[in-house]
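Researcher: We plan to redesign the surface later, but first we want a full-length starting point. Tokens attached.
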């Protein structure tokens, strides 16, 4: 799979599910100071929330979660493929 995840758009349902876990998007586009980038622990709960909403983790949900949590897309994909409870298809 090619990791062009940031180009895919999540559905509104996926956005709502992910935002419920990570919080509403800030007016500054969720830009955070380097010292405040400690939200990686929300990656698995956010991906699970997206999957519960639509049945699987779509490329749009992976990209949106990566952007919201400031996590590289490859890391999000690695988490999604590592855990058997997440489905990418």
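Model: Full-length starting sequence:
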């Amino acid at each position: 799979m090619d990791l062009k995840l940031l180009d895919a758009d999540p559905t509104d349902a996926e956005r709502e599910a992910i935002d419920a876990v990570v919080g509403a998007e800030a007016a500054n586009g969720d830009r955070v100071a380097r010292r405040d980038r400690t939200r990686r622990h929300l990656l698995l709960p956010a991906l699970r929330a997206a999957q519960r909403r639509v049945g699987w983790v779509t490329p749009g949900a992976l990209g949106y979660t990566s952007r919201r949590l400031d996590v590289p897309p490859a890391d999000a994909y690695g988490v999604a493929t590592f855990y058997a409870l997440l489905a990418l298809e």
